[in-house]
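Sorry to interrupt, but I need a hand with the structure work. Could you write out one complete protein record for me, on any chain you like? Could you add the entry underneath, on a fresh line?
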Amino acid sequence: YGLLIRAGFWFSARSLGDWPLLMCCLTLPIFPLAALVDEKLSQRKIIDENVSILIHIIITTSVIVYPVVVILKCESAVLSGFVLMFIASITWLKLVSFAHTNYDIRVLSKSIEKGASHVSSTDEENIKGPTIRSLVYFMLAPTLCYQPSYPRTSFIRKGWVIRQLIKCLVFSGLMGFIIEQYINPIVQNSK
């Protein structure tokens, strides 16, 4: 087919003007905050365990359904819709991990209150409830496994970070090339 790369498929004036998608992306942090409030209420025994689980199910379902509805209503460009769903999927995965880990922490702290388990001083720090600081760090950290605290080095390896960013840019460009050059013609011809 020759060289088929078009910038309009990935970047168009429409993708820069997708304000509803940008606003949807900027409102996604509401869901982790709602999960934190749910955990705080459950930790203080203001709401029942089953109600807390139901609220987590509603929050995690909403974090996926909300962007889909916005994308379908706006008829967005491919790139902006993809980026929004990518961010929403990561948020969903993180919230599922957050809910599961905090459920396990609540069960462990209940068993400690009953005297069924022995706890060491390091475990004592990890069975405390989630804080806004731990949630923000988790949402920004490149991990999908929530922990109340993470082991960290005292410095940032700048060379490693730069290499990872370069890899991300190179492989994103390669992915775009493969989609535009080979996958799109097959899809267009199949129609």
Notes: The chain has two domains: 17-152, 155-190. The mean pLDDT is 84. Residues 78-113 form the longest helix (36 residues). The two ends are 17 Å apart (CA to CA).
